Amino acid sequence: MGEALGKVLVVDDDEVIRQLIAVNLNLEGFEVVTATDGQDCLDRVLDVRPDVITLDVMMPHLDGWTTAQRLRSDEATRHIKVVLITARAQDDDKLRGKGIGVDAYLTKPFDPAELIQVVRDLAAGAVKK
């Protein structure tokens, strides 16, 4: 097996969704690490050093909005590409994500092929908004 396409930190409090995302990305050749919520993500991000983070918005302890803001405000993590994945599909939510500086926004239920393409593009440096 060749070199991984990149490292992805998958953050979601729902184990089924977390594993669904992880398996799909792993099958495509990404190295995948998972976290159970925003605080778990922030606690692990510097050790994991991901290229891309997929981040659920609605999570206990620390939601995706706050997690993304903290990632963007820290010099050590602001370069990491962030994909918000959420059931919140209102224009206001998308604008909020854009204001935070997330790189992509996918709504649940998401198409696994679309997720893979977005993560692939971001990992390759081809940012799509």
Descriptive notes:
Helix 2 runs parallel beside helix 3. This protein is an alpha/beta fold. It has five helices and five strands; from the N terminus they run βαβαβαβαβα. The model has no long low-confidence stretch (mean pLDDT 90). A five-stranded parallel beta sheet has the order 2-1-3-4-5, with helices on both faces. Strand 3, helix 3 and strand 4 form a beta-alpha-beta unit.
Computed CA radius of gyration, to the nearest angstrom: 13 Å
**Which descriptor suits the 3D outline?**
globular
Count the DSSP helices: 5
Residues in helices, as a percent range? 40-55%
Average pLDDT level:
90
The biggest beta sheet is recorded as: 5 strands, parallel
The string of secondary-structure elements, in order, is: EHEHEHEHEH
Q: Describe the strand arrangement of the main beta sheet, using strand numbers.
A: 2-1-3-4-5
Q: Kindly report how far apart the N and C termini lie.
A: 31 Å
Q: Which features does this protein show?
A:
single chain, 129 residues, alpha/beta, 5 strands, 19% strand, globular
Compact description:
By secondary structure, this protein is of the alpha/beta class.
Give me the secondary-structure topology.
Elements: E1 7-11, H1 15-27, E2 31-35, H2 38-48, E3 52-56, H3 64-73, E4 81-86, H4 91-100, E5 104-107, H5 112-123
Parallel strand pairs: 1-2, 1-3, 3-4, 4-5
Helix pairs in contact: 2-3
